Amino acid sequence: MGRKSCLSMGLMGVVILLVLGWTGGLFAQGTSAKEAEFYKRKTVDWIIPYKTGGGYDAWARAMQPFIGKITGATFVIRNIPGAGSLVGTNKLYTSDPNGLTIGILNGPGIMQAQLTNVQGVMYDLLKFTWLGRPTSEQRIICVSPKSKTKTVEAMKQAKEPVKFGAPGLGSSMFMDAALFAEALGIKIDLITGYETSEEVDLAIIRGELDAASGAFSSKIDVVKNGDMIAAAQFGNAKEADLANVPNVMDLPGLTGEGKQLLQLMVALNEVGRPMAAPPGMAPERAKFLEEVIKKTLEDPEFLQIAKKQQMDVMYLSAADLRKEMEKGVNLAPDVKKRLSEILAKYQPKK
Fold it and tell me: Could you tell me which of 49, 115, 147, 187 has the C-alpha nearest to residue 333?
């Protein structure tokens, strides 16, 4: 073999190594190169069970270019709102498990909907193909500056029901309001005639509603600019911006059952905003997507974007997420019964 041929082969080898290096060692952890090849030049639908502009939409659009760069695929955001996220969740569950449809879901909302047999649930959380959890945010109970009940204590003392809002029965805002009210003995009207959390926010700002819950990243700006007041917070994260906001677990006068209900509310919210694919996806393909998601969430450029948008990465692997789902779905019978009773109490009467 001549010197020129050896040099050409050597250069080719360098190019191959550079290409493999650019993928960040994605396949070195046991993921098949076959799966990586599958996604090149494919189009993947990414289901968001809400309208554009909300927190779930923001997470997907922030991650979208990074996942596309790693895989070589085009990820198309599909906003499918309705029924407090149930319409989009059902759509994901019944899609083809070929790897060309994924979604980011409202974990607490869809869990309580399944636990309490909400009409319209077509999924089983134990059968989804889980891909990991990008985040589980601290949540805030926000009130309107126009409300007469601007603190938790004022809500407890109110003679008239406090008006809480939620997009629907399959939303975490519905579950939060019901458990919060029941735990603290607050009389509330839980109004669910809103399509999105953004509509709930506008109703609070206008003074049509007194309060609602929401994720830190979705609510902190309106709290900072004075359009809402943070009355309480819950979750296991520590946010500097909420340093002076009381945690629900530290509120005075909690009964034994009240504390248990608040602990349940916190625990159910730990599933956060999980990413999933339809049931039955090939394990190798699911593992590939899990590693792509993890790599995206570790990317320094993505982390800068997340920081600017006040989105906290709180990653959970697919295996650990599956365990959290199993714990939630397999609640003790007495706890599940009590949860069902509470949520049924606040469902619209037919």
Answer: 115
For CA atoms 312, 316, 318, 323, give the dihedral sign. negative
Rounded to whole angstroms, the Cα distance separating 178 from 176 reads 6
Partners of 79 in the β-ladder: 48
Render 93-141 in DSSP notation, one character per residue: HTS--SSSEEEE--HHHHHHHHHTT-TT----TTTSEEEEEEE---EEE
Look at residue 53 in the predicted model and tell me its pLDDT: 84
d(CA 331, CA 337): 9
**Model confidence pLDDT, tens digit, residues 251-263:** 999 999 999 999 9
Q: Cα dihedral sign for 220, 223, 224, 225?
A: positive
Domains by residue range for the chain, with CATH: 30-136+271-333 (3.40.190.150), 139-269 (3.40.190.10)
Q: Higher confidence at residue 54 or residue 200?
A: 200
Single-letter amino acid, residue 132: G
pTM for this prediction: 0.80
Q: What is the pLDDT of residues 125-177, one digit of tens each?
A: 999 999 999 999 899 999 999 999 999 999 999 999 999 999 877 788 999 99
| Cα–Cα distance for residue pair 265/259, rounded to 1 Å | 10
Distance, in Å, from the CA atom of 321 to the CA atom of 10, rounded to the nearest integer, reads 45
**Token digits of residue 155:** 């809500």
Q: What pLDDT does 15 receive?
A: 40
